[in-house]
Specification:
By secondary structure, this protein is mainly α. Helix content is 56%, strand content 0%.
Length: 79
């Protein structure tokens, strides 16, 4: 198998960083929101399934982007 530099694969003169290929945090949190509101799956499983290895990071990012914790978000659908 031949591995080519990313610049050659993407095209000459194209400067891309690896993080540009990673899903945006907002997209991952958006997917988590859909699962929190539509399933009874444990929050830790949802966090892992959208790419967060750390619950602390997931909670911090969720709070920053949505203004509430994942638990509070889920509870808002079951009142």
């Amino acid at each position: 198998m031949v591995l080519l530099p990313l610049a050659r694969v993407a095209g000459e003169g194209v400067a891309l960083r690896v993080v540009e290929f990673a899903p945006e945090p907002d997209a991952r949190i958006g997917e988590a929101c859909a699962r929190l509101s539509g399933t009874a799956q444990p929050i830790r499983h949802i966090a892992a399934s959208v790419g967060y290895a750390s619950m602390a990071n997931f909670n911090r990012q969720f709070l920053r982007l949505r203004g509430m914790t994942p638990r509070e978000y889920r509870a808002s659908f079951h009142q």
